[in-house]
Amino acid sequence: MSSHAKNSFRRRTSSVREDCLGSSHSHHHHHEKNVDSMTFVDDESDVWRAHYALDHYQHRGNLFWNAGKHKTLIQYLLIGAVGVVQAIVAYGTNLTSAHIIEYKYTQVYGRLAESSGFVDVFLAYLFFTFYQLAFAMAASLFVWIEPVSAGSGIPEVKIFLNGIDLPRVVDPKTLVCKVLGVICSVSAGLPVGKEGPMVHSGAVVANTISKHETRDDKQVRDFVTCGAAAGVCTAFSSPIGGILFALEEGASYWAPSLTWKAFSCSMVALATLYCLNTVGSAFGKVGFNRLFSFGNFVFEEESSFAVFELALFVAIGAMGGIIGAVFNDTNERITKWRLKNVNHSKKRRVLEVLVVSVLVSTVSFLLPLLWRECKALPSTEGMDTSQLELRGSLVAFTCADDEYNEVASLILTDPGDAIRQLFHLHKHVFGSGALMLFFLSYISLAVVTYGIGVPSGLFVPSLLSGAAFGRLFGNMASAYFPQLAFSNTYSLIGAAAVLGGMARMTISLTVILLECIGNGQYVLPLMLTLMTAKTVGSFWNSDLYHIHIHFKKGVNFLQAELESVSRHHKLNAGHIMSDDVIFVRPVEKVSVVYDILKSSNHSNFPVVDDGLLYGTIGRNALCTLLKQRAYGKPIVVDEYSVTEHRDHRNHDSVRVHNYVTVEGGGGEDDEGEKFLPLTQWEVIEQSYPKYPSIGDVRISYADKDCMLDLRPFTNCAPISVRESASVTRTYEIFRSLGCRFLPVTNLHNQIVGTITRKDLTPDALAEKMIGKGARKAAH
Q1: Containing domain of residue 178, as a range?
Q2: CA–CA gap between residue 757 and residue 759 (Å, rounded)
Q3: 347 — pLDDT class (breaks 50, 70, 90)
Q4: Residue 376 falls inside a structural domain
Q5: For 110-131, how does the pLDDT look when each residue is reduced to its tens digit (9 = 90+)?
Q6: Which segments of 693-771 are extended strands (E)?
Q7: What's the pTM?
Q8: Looking at 214-341, which runs of residues are DSSP E strands?
Q9: Alpha-carbon dihedral of residues 452, 458, 463, 469, nearest 10 degrees?
Q10: Residue 93 falls inside a structural domain
Q11: How far apart are CA 483 and CA 481, in angstroms?
Q12: 593-611: per-residue pLDDT in tens?
């Protein structure tokens, strides 16, 4: 064993990494500062293997039915329940917010007419402002009750699926505050959407329903992934898009079985949504205008496009990438200011919401007044049913009954209606001036609003402002090239470009938009636009979700790929590891284990036998063993000795009375005796997720000299890396396998250090590179 390793071992309880992500608190101890990380790796201990082998043997069943099929059936029934419940949540959210918004605008329009004087307009403005202010106040109070419910929730879901257990992110209380809060924030007329919060609500629904059946982090992760897919499905009526969203943006791990689960969940969610939408018509044909839909994009020849226009779509994509980059950069600066001046006080957060609400209401009401221009309603000749309905949603404001105000029709109406107006009404309905005024004002309000203390989504504001931008581009281009496609095509491309420039999604967003419009001919334009927007935007900054993830304190988020500057540098695992190893031995004194758990906040510990890596064991397992008093008096104890043989079945230097003799199963020593540990895997498994903490453990003075045999509970097939392994290899192993920590060994399997999530963050790697460069320069 190297002297370097020996020196590290002497300090095994003297130093604790205070900021180690894998903290000691269990899922229910939210008062501690550190954020807990999860492990997606199977335990592989003897008791774990014996438990599942015995379970399989006892429930082996017959040719047509066995324990495995029974477990699979239960999982799929729960997944189906997730889809049903999430569809009900989404339907209720849409229905409630739609009625509130409809009542609001009915009252406002009723107070306005062509002959309205100053007093009438002012009274309408006061009603409009205070109505929206009341709902904004309500939305902020839900965030006061549960701060995690603020924002879209997509960054929090991405963090959770990355392996970081943020407190209360998937708790039922968060679901209630999120859903009620987003109803209020949308009803308050803020430039927010309810689609992002649907992803978060789907994740919470999945975690809540699966809670009594899941027994490890890996099962929870799969359910939450399915819930996120169902959330997108119910938000956009896009089942395949939901699956791809979970794959592209959510899960850091994917398997074929997870594809089937997510597919089933989205399928059931959409079927439930169809049933809810047709329950009043005896489950007849689905009215897609009652779901989130962009309407019918199959026109005669107007919506077709020429091949040369693909170049224009690429140009729109590039401009969308620039707009998205500017939006993200501006919102990042505003968020930094908020974190410094607002977010530390709940009262200030509520006050900020009220100020923003008044600002949005004033701008929304003032712009149509300043526009003043009234246009005659478009002719009904050649319009289909949906277009006639959209024509009827044009807002007169202070104009005559047969006229409408262009700006009011975009900003003083339901955002979904405004998007469909931009997509489907004739290009002369909205002039370039009105589109420019609306685009600049609405996107400015959206960039200020995103991040305030209310539940809010990004999709609808991005799509609406992007649709206005695309239609503006189409109007200007058609002035020089009359043969160009109808402006609804450019509205769609603009919407995709701006949303893609902010969120930087490609595959999933392409499919979501295609499922919303129901026309496959736009697949290539959307692909080109979104790829260009992502590429151009990524030159400047990250997507908005990762920007907000960066602001989460204590969150060490691991991207899909290592940054190139780290990848090409000659760093290896030995350079980035922590060499201050806190370890336990296969058979350890109760007092030693207790002191280690008390003095450190590590979540996992290497099990070291004569300096060599024997395996690993988790903090939760150690606390459970102490709580269950799974220890005994030693028969033979050579002070701190360990056996020459590392196989616990041949371990003779320490014999402990924490086994009971049974007729079969368990471990077996040289004399043929068969033993079974006093504590079985079911005891540890059933404690999930509320494992006992070391604060819950009480040991007597007599117990301190007892010996705790960790061999049956040790993961004897741990994932580890050599100290010579490259950082790239280490990063890929850690992230793709969902590790919580990695032991680092030398060529002789002697443990020389450990790597946790915090050691692989860009900041940590940059610091190591600087330090390595400085040492090299010194020599």
Answers
A1: 67-290
A2: 5
A3: very high
A4: no
A5: 888 766 678 888 999 999 999 9
A6: 707-709, 721-722, 741-745, 751-756
A7: 0.85
A8: none
A9: 50
A10: yes
A11: 5
A12: 999 999 988 889 999 998 8
